[in-house]
Amino acid sequence: MKIYPMSRRHFLKGATAAAIAVPQILPSRALGAGETVPPSERITVAHIGVGGRGTSVQKEFMALDDVQSVAVCDPFQNRRDEAAARIDAYYAEKWGVGTYKGVEPYNYFEEVLDRDDIDAVVVATPDH
Q1: In angstroms, what CA-CA distances link 68 with 1, 21, 111, 112?
Q2: What is the rounded distance in angstroms from the CA atom of residue 22 to the CA atom of residue 42?
Q3: What structural domains does the chain harbor?
Q4: Helix %, strand %, coil % for the chain, to 5?
Q5: Residue of 100, 121, 101 lying closest to 109 (CA atoms)
C-alpha cells in the first residue's frame, strides 16, 4: 500500500474549504443564528391529551422559544392529526421553511414514553 504524504498547504486548503462549506449545509436555526435557540438548548416536549384543554396548553408551550413540541398523543385520531398538523404549520412559519414535519402523532402514551429524545411530557387528559 502506497502512502501519499500530505503537505501542510494541502491540508489547510481542505480544512478551509470544509469550514466554509459547513454553514452552507446546516440551516441557521441549527446553529442558533439570530434569535433562534440551538437544538442543544431546547426542551423537547410531548403532549398527551390534545382536546380543548390540551390544545390551550399546547399553544402556551409553542410560544416559548426554548421549548419544541415533538409528539402528540390522543386516542382520537382526528385530534392527534390536527394537533400534529397545527404544530408543524406553526414551526414552518416560525422558522421560515416551506413545510415542517417534526411532530409525531401517537395513539398510545406508552409509545411516547419509550422515546429517548423527549425531555418533558405534558398530560392534559380529563379525569374520567
Answers
A1: 50, 28, 18, 15
A2: 22
A3: 1-32 (no CATH), 42-123 (3.40.50.720)
A4: 45, 15, 40
A5: 121
CA-based nearest residue to 46, from 127, 126, 115, 128: 115
Q: Residue 54: how many CB atoms within 10 A of its CB?
A: 22
C-alpha cell at 48: 398527551
Q: Give the DSSP H/E element, type plus range, for residue 61.
A: helix 52-62
The owner of cell 398523543 is: 73
d(CA 109, CA 121): 10
Task: Kindly report, residue by residue over 20-66, the tens digit of the pLDDT.
Answer: 655 555 555 555 555 566 767 889 999 999 999 999 999 999 999 88
Whole-prediction pTM: 0.70
